[in-house]
Amino acid sequence: MQATRNPLPPGPKQHWLLGIGIQQVKNPLRLLMRGHQRHGDLVYFNLFEGPTLLVCHPEHAQHVLVENVRKYRPVGPESGNGGPLLGRGLFASRGDFWMRQRRMVQPAFHRPRMGPMVAGMVRGIERTAERWEPLARSGARVDLLTEMRQLVISTLGESIFSRDVYAQSEPLRGGIDLITRDMHGPRDSLVTTVLGLLRMLPARRRRFMAAIQGLNSALYALIAERRQAPDVGDDILGMLLGARDPQGEGMSDQQVRDELVSLFVGGHEATAVAATWCWYTLARNPEAEQRVRQELAEVLRGQPPSEATVQHLTYTRAVVEETLRLHPPAWRVVRQAREEDRLGDWTVAPGTLVVVSPYILHRHPSAWEQPEQFKPERFLAEQRERREQRQAYMPFGAGQRLCIGNHYTLLLITTALATLMQRHRVRLSSEGPVRAMSGSTYRPRDGLMATLQPVGSAS
């Protein structure tokens, strides 16, 4: 009956002139959180992009992202082309082409493939550990977000190309660094919006395109080198080159390039942010940090993680998963209704944007006790099995568009913590809560400054 009287769910009042535009630009996540707190599990907003429905209950998220997925489409270019950077990789493509590419790329990330990657991960991570040695001795401050970005891109290089191409190729490194600064710089959302508009200026556009050209030249050279080799190899690049669709056709160089950008460039930022949040949560929860160190001592006995031992680091992995619950880098998922649908008592009109926020879902009281508390035990086997609502936890998305690298990300961060914590202690430079921002990812706005100490030194 309520839906008959008012076809729209409740939502915040609009300013007579500006609507809620200032709030949307300044802190979009806070806007969504306040909407949920004041108006419930379905909230209507009139945003810049048009009529928008915020979905806050796990069951509604399940409906939109899994059960009725055909009624909703990912928001993005209608052509399914992500422009000169992303091309038609998995991040941007749509429809039948996306399904073809997904099926060809997916085997590279099946769980049985993950274990053999641990050795390459450790090689990449140990370069960070070695770089930290003099910094720990000198007591110099480091930005953990910057450190994790370099660690993740180096380690991804080992997994994708069997070597650290980021360190070895200046054009590739320069392109990635400029693109990262442009897309994920330490600025608030208002400045991000303005600079996004300024990207249309000729000088800024030229720098961005030059970075993409440098990236392309390096990636196409790597593809050509591998195609000419007697064996394409068994790393991720080798699997992409060897993949075939049901008609027996492989990927063109352009298609391989687009997938490499999605995996290597597009995927590293969220992983680096997640790893940074792990250092933050451990530093703020010394009992959990001590329990991780105890597990590392018992399982690894001073040795680097391996395919055989990393699977036994159950508490360390639980720390990673609980961190992703409290601080999901992918803080929102946006869909657009293709046709009319129903959510609870409300009608979703065609064209309506639907926002699902993992940050809010991960705190929903129907699924989580003491949701603001850091409790890694939630992700140990017994408690995990008791959790009933399927989309109460979705740091990697859900349904068909579930992040293809979800298992890889969990393994990489677990391996990174296990490797680095055996040699170093991290102490935050500030004891207070970090200032976060909700831009392209949910991340520390100004990085995360810390000092390093060798394990065994006085704390």
From TrEMBL:
<dbReference type="InterPro" id="IPR050196">
    <property type="entry name" value="Cytochrome_P450_Monoox"/>
</dbReference>
<dbReference type="InterPro" id="IPR002401">
    <property type="entry name" value="Cyt_P450_E_grp-I"/>
</dbReference>
<keyword id="KW-0560">Oxidoreductase</keyword>
<protein>
    <submittedName>
        <fullName>Cytochrome P450</fullName>
    </submittedName>
</protein>
<dbReference type="GO" id="GO:0005506">
    <property type="term" value="F:iron ion binding"/>
</dbReference>
<dbReference type="GO" id="GO:0016705">
    <property type="term" value="F:oxidoreductase activity, acting on paired donors, with incorporation or reduction of molecular oxygen"/>
</dbReference>
<dbReference type="GO" id="GO:0020037">
    <property type="term" value="F:heme binding"/>
</dbReference>
<feature type="binding site" description="axial binding residue">
    <location>
        <position position="403"/>
    </location>
    <ligand>
        <name>heme</name>
    </ligand>
</feature>
<keyword id="KW-0503">Monooxygenase</keyword>
<dbReference type="InterPro" id="IPR017972">
    <property type="entry name" value="Cyt_P450_CS"/>
</dbReference>
<comment type="similarity">
    <text>Belongs to the cytochrome P450 family.</text>
</comment>
<keyword id="KW-0408">Iron</keyword>
<dbReference type="InterPro" id="IPR036396">
    <property type="entry name" value="Cyt_P450_sf"/>
</dbReference>
<dbReference type="GO" id="GO:0004497">
    <property type="term" value="F:monooxygenase activity"/>
</dbReference>
<keyword id="KW-0479">Metal-binding</keyword>
<dbReference type="InterPro" id="IPR001128">
    <property type="entry name" value="Cyt_P450"/>
</dbReference>
<dbReference type="Pfam" id="PF00067">
    <property type="entry name" value="p450"/>
</dbReference>
<keyword id="KW-0349">Heme</keyword>
